[in-house]
Amino acid sequence: MQPLSHVELNPVFTLPELSTLNDVPSRPFSALQARVDSAFATLSELNAVNPVLLLNGFPGTDYEELVQDLVRKHAKHADLFDLCYAENLNHPQKPIWLRLKAGTGLEFCELVGQLLELSSRHLEAEHVVQRILKKQGNDEKVADYLSLLSQHVAAGQGFSHPVLINLMVHRHDNTIPIVYARQFTPEQLFGAIHFQTEQGSVFSHHHLLEPGLIHQANGGYLIVPIEELLDQPNLWFRLKHALAARQVEWSRAAEMTSFYFQPEPPPLDIHLILVGDRLSVAELYLLDRELDTLAFLRADIIPEWDVRDDLPSYLGFLSHLRQKHQLLDMDTGAILRLCGYGCRLTEHQHRLSLVESQLVAMMQLSDVIARREQSELITEAHVVLAQQEQDHRLSFLVEQSDLGVRDGQYLLQTSGKIVGQINGLSVIQITGHPYDFGEPVRLTATVHLGDGDVVDIERKADLAGHIHAKAMMIIHGYLANLFGAEHPSPLSANLVFEQSYHEIDGDSASLTGLCALLSALAKEPIYQHFAVTGAVDQFGHVQPVGGVNEKIEGFFRLCKIQGLTGKQGVLLPASNRLQLNLSDEVSAAIEAGQFHIYPVAHVEQAIELLTGSVAGDVEQPDTLFGRIRDRLDELNGHTVETGFLRRLFRR
Question: Exactly one of 426, 508, 510, 519 is catalytic; which is it?
């Protein structure tokens, strides 16, 4: 079997004609989100009060920019208004709200001041009242308040506080409000009633009412991260009640429970946008099973872009990020290198990452290096150096892992042949560390007389997860189907991950374990210059696994420490070809013939590479599988019978 060429190890991009990234028209993130765009188009025409849109997103997304762009594109109108609170002249402990036309709040306060002055001097104030009502479209509630206010002043009655009008929300223009709620308290979201203490008495007035984020978003859009609601579940139910009631109840401090002060709840007219990843959405659904009914309009924010469909649009997104964060322009080499980095993040040669935070981080690191060198452009060399510096800053744990190999603490081999021993590949994930890294592991298999069971020592020691346990059962199923369909196997086997002292999970070592068992059953040694990763089914087909790049690079580090021989390499599932995106060092070694990548589709291909022997058929005694069948038949006492039948049918 031929190994993969170095050309197949990394993605290939065909750029349009350009010299720098600035030559590409800028395209915002929203332009690459057709699903979300469709949702906002529907939301703008939805005939519903206080509708809810739920966006399934991912960390690193600028939700605020996304919503702003799509609101500007699709919102046809907004029912904007100014909101103020005034003293209830009949019941001072129940302040009332007045809904004013957007942008007229300040003028309203001035005209009310003129009305008070004229009324207090018993002068004709009807023209002021008419002027106010004309400005407010003859609003009935405003008219009633002005009439009562005129009578109140004319009768010489006073007020509970000198500040007559509390203008809480004032729209300076017709811009649709888009409010992002971040790290909010109940008072910050729903508004707060402040209070004063005088001679041991606690009291409040309408002028002590402070608007919340929900008031500021009235008539527009309120973006709420689901994670914030999960930290304070009661706020979700309160928000849900406000949407249904179409009004906002005021938050009351604990100190105010002893006295009566009840402002009139203001009207609520918003579009609520809930944003969060799928895990957060699932947790919120567990809290409230009515979530699907309330947020029936949903959309997925896609984290990846298919390079085969439209590479120029992705380049436009990179151009947008560069302009947004005021970074230096990039030449074609830097663009290609950044696209390769985006592919590495998605683990697919045809897909590019749309995670803004990760892309911008690499662009900013490259920008720092370019400015340090007083360059006018970010070049490929700057991006490469940025990656190298970042890897160096975060490589301590990798170096500690390699130190065990250098010191001989980890017994791993990259040369020679051993029966029942094979190099497996694992990926180490450490909480709080941004990088995963590959680490080789030694698997050994031994066989002995028994009942045909495969004993997974990791499982027996409670060091294996459920998926790993399933993989070991699949291995047993394959062996039983291939060698024990007619007679039970007289051999049992032990399989262990040597020098592994932490819990493992996953099925990516099932091909590795199966090959070690086949080696032990056939007494056929395995080349130690190979490492293997891949899952298998009960028929021996090799299935794809994750983390192939980290695994390959991890074994390459081991081979480099022990010395590259030109024979070393990795066997991986053929279906993982599109996930390959290897480092420059590994790619160079493969191009030079010092390292190799072998794609395998079936366990037979893998065992033939690992042992140098033909897997063959169980009915052929001169093959590896045939020798295993002969050994099992001999132990079962069927040697004479089966040997005669084989000779008979071969003739």
Answer: 508
